[in-house]
TrEMBL record:
Residues 145-277 form the GFO/IDH/MocA-like oxidoreductase domain. InterPro entries: Gfo/Idh/MocA-like_OxRdtase_N, Gfo/Idh/MocA_oxidoreduct, GFO_IDH_MocA-like_dom, NAD(P)-bd_dom_sf. Residues 6-137 form the Gfo/Idh/MocA-like oxidoreductase N-terminal domain. Signal peptide: none annotated. It comes from the Bacteria. This is Gfo/Idh/MocA family oxidoreductase. It comes from Robiginitalea marina. Pfam families: GFO_IDH_MocA, GFO_IDH_MocA_C3.
Length: 378
Protein backbone atom coordinates (compact mmCIF):
# COMPACT_ATOMS: atom_id res chain seq x y z
CA UNK A 1 0.00 0.00 0.00
CA UNK A 2 1.34 3.49 -0.83
CA UNK A 3 2.51 5.56 2.13
CA UNK A 4 0.06 8.05 3.57
CA UNK A 5 0.11 11.65 2.40
CA UNK A 6 0.97 14.14 5.14
CA UNK A 7 -1.98 16.51 5.62
CA UNK A 8 -2.25 19.81 7.50
CA UNK A 9 -5.55 21.45 8.38
CA UNK A 10 -6.36 25.16 8.70
CA UNK A 11 -9.61 25.86 10.56
CA UNK A 12 -12.33 23.29 11.12
CA UNK A 13 -11.91 22.88 14.87
CA UNK A 14 -14.54 22.56 17.56
CA UNK A 15 -18.00 21.56 16.39
CA UNK A 16 -17.36 22.63 12.78
CA UNK A 17 -19.37 20.52 10.31
CA UNK A 18 -16.79 21.18 7.60
CA UNK A 19 -13.98 20.14 9.92
CA UNK A 20 -15.31 16.69 10.73
CA UNK A 21 -16.36 16.21 7.10
CA UNK A 22 -12.80 16.78 5.89
CA UNK A 23 -11.18 14.71 8.64
CA UNK A 24 -13.42 11.71 7.99
CA UNK A 25 -12.90 12.06 4.23
CA UNK A 26 -9.13 12.16 4.67
CA UNK A 27 -9.17 8.90 6.63
CA UNK A 28 -11.70 7.12 4.42
CA UNK A 29 -9.31 5.40 2.01
CA UNK A 30 -6.28 5.37 4.35
CA UNK A 31 -4.53 7.79 2.00
CA UNK A 32 -3.77 10.64 4.42
CA UNK A 33 -2.28 11.22 7.84
CA UNK A 34 -3.09 14.46 9.68
CA UNK A 35 0.29 15.66 10.96
CA UNK A 36 -0.43 19.23 12.05
CA UNK A 37 -2.94 22.06 12.10
CA UNK A 38 -4.14 25.46 13.16
CA UNK A 39 -7.68 24.58 14.13
CA UNK A 40 -8.50 27.96 15.71
CA UNK A 41 -7.07 31.48 15.90
CA UNK A 42 -6.82 30.87 19.66
CA UNK A 43 -3.85 28.58 20.19
CA UNK A 44 -5.13 27.09 23.45
CA UNK A 45 -8.34 26.08 21.68
CA UNK A 46 -6.36 24.46 18.87
CA UNK A 47 -4.31 22.49 21.38
CA UNK A 48 -7.40 21.41 23.33
CA UNK A 49 -9.12 20.26 20.15
CA UNK A 50 -6.04 18.32 19.02
CA UNK A 51 -6.04 16.48 22.34
CA UNK A 52 -9.76 15.85 21.99
CA UNK A 53 -9.24 14.04 18.67
CA UNK A 54 -6.04 12.37 19.90
CA UNK A 55 -3.68 14.27 17.60
CA UNK A 56 -0.09 14.96 18.77
CA UNK A 57 0.32 18.62 19.71
CA UNK A 58 3.94 19.16 18.64
CA UNK A 59 2.77 20.48 15.24
CA UNK A 60 -0.32 22.37 16.39
CA UNK A 61 0.85 25.86 15.55
CA UNK A 62 -0.28 29.20 17.04
CA UNK A 63 -1.02 30.70 13.62
CA UNK A 64 -0.80 30.09 9.90
CA UNK A 65 2.46 31.95 9.28
CA UNK A 66 4.18 29.95 12.00
CA UNK A 67 2.88 26.73 10.46
CA UNK A 68 4.44 27.54 7.10
CA UNK A 69 7.72 28.75 8.61
CA UNK A 70 8.15 25.72 10.88
CA UNK A 71 7.08 23.17 8.29
CA UNK A 72 9.59 24.57 5.80
CA UNK A 73 12.37 23.88 8.33
CA UNK A 74 11.55 20.17 8.25
CA UNK A 75 13.08 17.76 5.73
CA UNK A 76 10.89 17.35 2.65
CA UNK A 77 10.27 13.77 3.66
CA UNK A 78 8.63 14.92 6.91
CA UNK A 79 6.85 18.20 6.18
CA UNK A 80 3.20 18.54 5.22
CA UNK A 81 2.52 17.81 1.58
CA UNK A 82 -1.00 19.20 1.34
CA UNK A 83 -3.06 21.61 3.43
CA UNK A 84 -6.84 21.80 3.69
CA UNK A 85 -8.10 25.39 3.98
CA UNK A 86 -11.37 25.31 5.96
CA UNK A 87 -11.39 28.86 7.31
CA UNK A 88 -13.94 31.66 6.69
CA UNK A 89 -13.89 32.87 3.08
CA UNK A 90 -11.72 35.97 3.49
CA UNK A 91 -8.75 33.85 4.60
CA UNK A 92 -8.82 31.44 1.66
CA UNK A 93 -6.83 33.62 -0.74
CA UNK A 94 -3.89 34.68 1.47
CA UNK A 95 -3.51 31.19 2.89
CA UNK A 96 -3.79 29.33 -0.41
CA UNK A 97 -1.43 31.75 -2.14
CA UNK A 98 1.28 31.40 0.49
CA UNK A 99 0.90 27.62 0.50
CA UNK A 100 1.33 27.48 -3.27
CA UNK A 101 4.36 29.77 -3.12
CA UNK A 102 5.98 27.33 -0.69
CA UNK A 103 5.23 24.25 -2.78
CA UNK A 104 2.31 22.76 -0.87
CA UNK A 105 -0.66 21.09 -2.53
CA UNK A 106 -3.98 22.68 -1.53
CA UNK A 107 -7.51 21.45 -0.81
CA UNK A 108 -9.69 24.55 -0.44
CA UNK A 109 -13.26 25.07 0.65
CA UNK A 110 -15.47 27.13 -1.63
CA UNK A 111 -15.77 29.85 -2.63
CA UNK A 112 -12.07 29.64 -3.39
CA UNK A 113 -11.55 33.37 -2.75
CA UNK A 114 -13.74 36.40 -2.17
CA UNK A 115 -13.09 38.07 -5.56
CA UNK A 116 -12.61 37.01 -9.16
CA UNK A 117 -9.37 39.02 -9.30
CA UNK A 118 -7.97 37.02 -6.37
CA UNK A 119 -9.06 33.79 -8.02
CA UNK A 120 -7.12 34.65 -11.20
CA UNK A 121 -4.04 35.51 -9.14
CA UNK A 122 -4.35 32.18 -7.36
CA UNK A 123 -4.68 30.40 -10.71
CA UNK A 124 -1.42 31.96 -11.88
CA UNK A 125 0.28 30.98 -8.62
CA UNK A 126 -0.89 27.39 -8.96
CA UNK A 127 0.29 27.25 -12.56
CA UNK A 128 3.74 28.46 -11.48
CA UNK A 129 3.88 26.05 -8.55
CA UNK A 130 2.73 23.03 -10.53
CA UNK A 131 1.07 21.55 -7.47
CA UNK A 132 -2.38 19.99 -7.10
CA UNK A 133 -5.23 22.33 -6.17
CA UNK A 134 -8.72 21.02 -5.39
CA UNK A 135 -11.87 22.98 -4.55
CA UNK A 136 -14.34 21.00 -2.47
CA UNK A 137 -17.56 21.20 -4.39
CA UNK A 138 -18.48 18.13 -2.39
CA UNK A 139 -21.58 17.11 -4.31
CA UNK A 140 -19.52 16.17 -7.36
CA UNK A 141 -18.32 13.21 -5.28
CA UNK A 142 -21.70 11.47 -5.19
CA UNK A 143 -21.71 8.32 -7.35
CA UNK A 144 -25.01 9.17 -9.06
CA UNK A 145 -23.87 12.71 -9.88
CA UNK A 146 -20.84 11.13 -11.52
CA UNK A 147 -23.13 8.70 -13.31
CA UNK A 148 -25.19 11.66 -14.55
CA UNK A 149 -22.05 13.32 -15.90
CA UNK A 150 -20.88 10.18 -17.70
CA UNK A 151 -24.29 9.49 -19.26
CA UNK A 152 -24.46 13.03 -20.63
CA UNK A 153 -20.89 12.77 -21.91
CA UNK A 154 -21.80 9.55 -23.69
CA UNK A 155 -24.60 11.37 -25.51
CA UNK A 156 -27.48 9.52 -23.85
CA UNK A 157 -29.56 12.71 -23.63
CA UNK A 158 -28.57 13.91 -27.08
CA UNK A 159 -28.37 17.67 -27.56
CA UNK A 160 -29.05 19.50 -24.27
CA UNK A 161 -32.04 21.88 -24.25
CA UNK A 162 -32.63 23.01 -20.69
CA UNK A 163 -30.93 23.04 -17.28
CA UNK A 164 -32.65 23.62 -13.95
CA UNK A 165 -30.68 23.70 -10.70
CA UNK A 166 -31.85 24.77 -7.27
CA UNK A 167 -30.33 24.96 -3.81
CA UNK A 168 -32.86 25.78 -1.10
CA UNK A 169 -32.07 26.13 2.59
CA UNK A 170 -33.90 27.82 5.44
CA UNK A 171 -31.19 28.23 8.07
CA UNK A 172 -30.87 32.03 7.84
CA UNK A 173 -34.62 32.53 8.25
CA UNK A 174 -34.51 32.56 12.09
CA UNK A 175 -31.52 34.93 11.96
CA UNK A 176 -32.38 37.45 9.26
CA UNK A 177 -35.48 38.79 11.02
CA UNK A 178 -33.51 39.73 14.15
CA UNK A 179 -31.42 42.87 13.58
CA UNK A 180 -28.85 41.98 16.23
CA UNK A 181 -28.44 38.41 14.99
CA UNK A 182 -28.12 39.33 11.33
CA UNK A 183 -25.40 41.80 12.24
CA UNK A 184 -23.32 39.14 13.99
CA UNK A 185 -23.29 36.22 11.52
CA UNK A 186 -20.07 36.13 9.47
CA UNK A 187 -21.82 34.90 6.32
CA UNK A 188 -23.81 38.17 6.30
CA UNK A 189 -20.66 40.25 6.76
CA UNK A 190 -19.14 41.22 3.38
CA UNK A 191 -15.73 41.76 5.02
CA UNK A 192 -15.61 38.07 5.89
CA UNK A 193 -17.87 36.34 3.37
CA UNK A 194 -17.23 38.43 0.27
CA UNK A 195 -19.83 40.24 -1.81
CA UNK A 196 -22.46 37.50 -1.72
CA UNK A 197 -24.06 35.28 0.91
CA UNK A 198 -26.61 33.10 -0.86
CA UNK A 199 -24.94 32.82 -4.27
CA UNK A 200 -21.47 32.78 -2.74
CA UNK A 201 -22.32 29.98 -0.33
CA UNK A 202 -24.84 27.71 -2.06
CA UNK A 203 -25.77 29.14 -5.45
CA UNK A 204 -22.20 28.53 -6.58
CA UNK A 205 -22.70 24.81 -5.84
CA UNK A 206 -25.70 24.73 -8.19
CA UNK A 207 -23.66 26.60 -10.81
CA UNK A 208 -20.83 24.09 -10.47
CA UNK A 209 -23.24 21.17 -10.75
CA UNK A 210 -24.61 22.50 -14.04
CA UNK A 211 -21.15 22.80 -15.58
CA UNK A 212 -19.87 19.56 -14.04
CA UNK A 213 -22.72 17.37 -15.26
CA UNK A 214 -23.30 18.90 -18.70
CA UNK A 215 -19.71 19.68 -19.66
CA UNK A 216 -21.02 23.02 -20.93
CA UNK A 217 -20.04 26.49 -19.74
CA UNK A 218 -22.51 29.15 -18.65
CA UNK A 219 -21.80 32.11 -20.92
CA UNK A 220 -24.12 34.80 -19.58
CA UNK A 221 -26.70 35.34 -16.86
CA UNK A 222 -29.41 37.62 -15.51
CA UNK A 223 -29.93 37.73 -11.75
CA UNK A 224 -32.51 39.05 -9.29
CA UNK A 225 -31.69 39.06 -5.55
CA UNK A 226 -33.70 39.50 -2.38
CA UNK A 227 -32.08 41.05 0.71
CA UNK A 228 -35.26 41.21 2.85
CA UNK A 229 -34.00 44.18 4.93
CA UNK A 230 -32.48 47.48 3.85
CA UNK A 231 -29.70 47.24 6.43
CA UNK A 232 -28.65 43.78 5.16
CA UNK A 233 -25.95 44.09 2.47
CA UNK A 234 -25.91 40.41 1.52
CA UNK A 235 -28.27 38.45 -0.72
CA UNK A 236 -30.21 35.71 1.05
CA UNK A 237 -32.26 34.61 -1.96
CA UNK A 238 -31.82 34.78 -5.70
CA UNK A 239 -32.95 33.59 -9.11
CA UNK A 240 -30.57 33.44 -12.07
CA UNK A 241 -31.46 32.93 -15.72
CA UNK A 242 -28.53 31.36 -17.56
CA UNK A 243 -27.48 30.90 -21.17
CA UNK A 244 -24.99 28.17 -22.01
CA UNK A 245 -24.94 27.72 -25.77
CA UNK A 246 -27.21 29.32 -28.38
CA UNK A 247 -30.16 27.04 -27.76
CA UNK A 248 -29.31 25.88 -24.23
CA UNK A 249 -30.85 27.93 -21.46
CA UNK A 250 -31.87 27.40 -17.89
CA UNK A 251 -32.31 28.68 -14.36
CA UNK A 252 -30.40 28.53 -11.07
CA UNK A 253 -32.47 29.18 -7.95
CA UNK A 254 -30.93 29.54 -4.51
CA UNK A 255 -32.30 30.60 -1.14
CA UNK A 256 -31.21 30.66 2.48
CA UNK A 257 -34.67 31.79 3.62
CA UNK A 258 -36.74 28.98 2.08
CA UNK A 259 -38.53 28.30 5.35
CA UNK A 260 -38.35 24.68 6.46
CA UNK A 261 -35.96 23.59 3.74
CA UNK A 262 -32.86 21.71 4.86
CA UNK A 263 -30.29 21.08 2.14
CA UNK A 264 -32.37 21.06 -1.01
CA UNK A 265 -29.84 20.88 -3.82
CA UNK A 266 -31.37 19.41 -6.97
CA UNK A 267 -30.51 19.40 -10.66
CA UNK A 268 -32.43 18.45 -13.80
CA UNK A 269 -30.94 18.28 -17.29
CA UNK A 270 -33.17 17.90 -20.34
CA UNK A 271 -32.08 16.89 -23.83
CA UNK A 272 -33.59 15.78 -27.12
CA UNK A 273 -33.52 12.08 -26.08
CA UNK A 274 -34.54 12.39 -22.45
CA UNK A 275 -33.86 13.95 -19.08
CA UNK A 276 -31.96 13.25 -15.86
CA UNK A 277 -32.82 14.43 -12.36
CA UNK A 278 -30.91 14.12 -9.07
CA UNK A 279 -31.65 15.42 -5.56
CA UNK A 280 -29.05 15.73 -2.80
CA UNK A 281 -31.42 14.73 0.00
CA UNK A 282 -32.10 11.46 -1.89
CA UNK A 283 -28.63 10.94 -3.36
CA UNK A 284 -28.90 7.24 -4.19
CA UNK A 285 -31.52 7.82 -6.89
CA UNK A 286 -30.83 9.15 -10.38
CA UNK A 287 -34.03 9.51 -12.40
CA UNK A 288 -34.04 9.10 -16.17
CA UNK A 289 -37.04 10.62 -17.93
CA UNK A 290 -38.28 9.80 -21.42
CA UNK A 291 -41.11 10.80 -23.76
CA UNK A 292 -41.40 7.27 -25.08
CA UNK A 293 -40.85 5.00 -22.09
CA UNK A 294 -41.36 4.66 -18.35
CA UNK A 295 -39.39 6.50 -15.70
CA UNK A 296 -36.13 4.70 -14.92
CA UNK A 297 -34.24 4.83 -11.62
CA UNK A 298 -30.49 4.29 -11.45
CA UNK A 299 -28.89 3.36 -8.11
CA UNK A 300 -25.25 3.11 -6.96
CA UNK A 301 -23.15 -0.03 -7.00
CA UNK A 302 -24.76 -1.81 -9.95
CA UNK A 303 -22.72 -3.03 -12.92
CA UNK A 304 -24.78 -0.89 -15.31
CA UNK A 305 -23.15 2.26 -13.90
CA UNK A 306 -20.06 3.94 -15.34
CA UNK A 307 -16.51 3.21 -14.10
CA UNK A 308 -16.35 6.71 -12.55
CA UNK A 309 -19.57 6.11 -10.62
CA UNK A 310 -18.51 2.64 -9.50
CA UNK A 311 -15.10 3.92 -8.41
CA UNK A 312 -16.89 6.27 -6.02
CA UNK A 313 -19.14 3.54 -4.60
CA UNK A 314 -17.79 1.83 -1.49
CA UNK A 315 -20.63 -0.51 -0.55
CA UNK A 316 -22.87 -3.09 -2.25
CA UNK A 317 -26.18 -1.88 -3.73
CA UNK A 318 -28.78 -0.93 -1.17
CA UNK A 319 -26.33 0.40 1.43
CA UNK A 320 -26.83 4.18 1.63
CA UNK A 321 -23.81 6.42 1.15
CA UNK A 322 -23.82 10.14 1.86
CA UNK A 323 -21.97 13.43 2.15
CA UNK A 324 -18.95 11.97 3.97
CA UNK A 325 -18.53 9.41 1.20
CA UNK A 326 -18.82 12.13 -1.45
CA UNK A 327 -16.07 14.19 0.19
CA UNK A 328 -14.01 11.02 0.62
CA UNK A 329 -14.18 10.43 -3.13
CA UNK A 330 -12.79 13.92 -3.75
CA UNK A 331 -9.94 13.32 -1.30
CA UNK A 332 -9.24 10.01 -3.01
CA UNK A 333 -8.94 11.71 -6.39
CA UNK A 334 -6.63 14.36 -4.94
CA UNK A 335 -4.43 11.63 -3.45
CA UNK A 336 -4.15 9.98 -6.87
CA UNK A 337 -3.14 13.31 -8.42
CA UNK A 338 -0.56 14.04 -5.72
CA UNK A 339 0.96 10.57 -6.18
CA UNK A 340 1.07 11.00 -9.95
CA UNK A 341 -1.37 8.15 -10.55
CA UNK A 342 -3.89 8.04 -13.38
CA UNK A 343 -7.27 9.53 -12.51
CA UNK A 344 -10.49 10.66 -14.20
CA UNK A 345 -10.79 14.43 -14.60
CA UNK A 346 -14.18 14.21 -12.90
CA UNK A 347 -12.72 12.99 -9.60
CA UNK A 348 -12.24 16.42 -8.05
CA UNK A 349 -12.98 20.05 -8.93
CA UNK A 350 -9.84 22.00 -9.80
CA UNK A 351 -8.69 25.59 -9.46
CA UNK A 352 -10.36 26.26 -12.81
CA UNK A 353 -13.71 25.40 -11.21
CA UNK A 354 -12.86 27.77 -8.36
CA UNK A 355 -12.16 30.60 -10.81
CA UNK A 356 -15.38 29.88 -12.67
CA UNK A 357 -17.29 30.01 -9.39
CA UNK A 358 -15.99 33.49 -8.53
CA UNK A 359 -16.77 34.69 -12.05
CA UNK A 360 -20.33 33.43 -11.54
CA UNK A 361 -20.72 35.06 -8.11
CA UNK A 362 -19.49 38.45 -9.28
CA UNK A 363 -21.62 38.29 -12.42
CA UNK A 364 -24.77 37.66 -10.35
CA UNK A 365 -24.04 40.67 -8.16
CA UNK A 366 -23.26 42.86 -11.17
CA UNK A 367 -26.45 41.75 -12.92
CA UNK A 368 -28.65 42.56 -9.93
CA UNK A 369 -27.01 45.87 -9.14
CA UNK A 370 -27.11 46.86 -12.80
CA UNK A 371 -30.89 46.58 -12.80
CA UNK A 372 -31.29 42.89 -13.61
CA UNK A 373 -29.29 42.97 -16.84
CA UNK A 374 -27.56 40.24 -18.80
CA UNK A 375 -23.87 39.91 -17.85
CA UNK A 376 -21.28 37.83 -19.71
CA UNK A 377 -18.90 35.43 -17.96
CA UNK A 378 -15.31 35.18 -19.11
Amino acid sequence: MPRKIRLGILGGGGDSLIGVLHRVAAHMFDSYEIVGAVFSPVHEESLAFARQIDLPTDRIYPDFDTLVAEEMKLPESERMEVCAVLTPNFLHFPMAKKLLEHGFHVICEKPMTTTYEEAKILEDAQRSAGTVFAVTHTYTGYPMVRQMREMIRAGELGRIHKVDAQYYQGWINPIIHDKEKRSSVWRLDPKKAGISSCMGDIGVHAFNMVEYTTGLKIRSLLCDFNYLYDDNQMDVDGTVLVRLDKHVKGVIRASQVATGEENGLAISIYGEKGGLRWEQERPNFLYRLSDSGPLQVYKPGHAYNSPLSLDGTKLPPGHPEGIFDAMGNIYRGVARAIRGEAYNDGEFPTITDGVRGLDFIEATVASHKGGNIWVDLD
